[in-house]
Amino acid sequence: QVQLVESGGGLVQAGGSLRLSCAASGGTFRTATMGWFRQAQGKEREFVTAITWSAGITYYEDSVKGRFTISRDKAKNTVYLQMNSLKPENTAVYYCAAGRPYNYYSARVHSNYDYWGQGTQVTVSS
Hints:
Strand content: over 45%
Largest sheet: 7 strands, mixed
Helix content: under 10%
Structural class: mainly beta
Number of helices: 1
Distance between the termini: 40 Å
Oligomer: single chain
Order of helices and strands: EEEEEEEEEHEE
Mean pLDDT: 95
Radius of gyration: 13 Å
Low-confidence stretches: none
């Protein structure tokens, strides 16, 4: 049973930074793509970034390029999302996901992910 557990969310002022973690267990992730999505109140879940577990190929939503960085630690089975220069519009519940997307376009589609974490709240105050 694959489990994804996010942590690291919280309240931060605009311009600040947070690092989210996603600890993965219960499965083999060698061929997986790990993604981060977010859902703001009253809005649909949207793609943020993703990384292929094996090669470390990364994909980013345009609005976070240059501010957010995704990485993974194979030894710890953990994926990280470093978020810098945060803005109030980045406020959302952030979800970690694991699946089999194979390129940027498929990585953006949440139905291509089989497993999801419970989410962690990120609140950016102005």
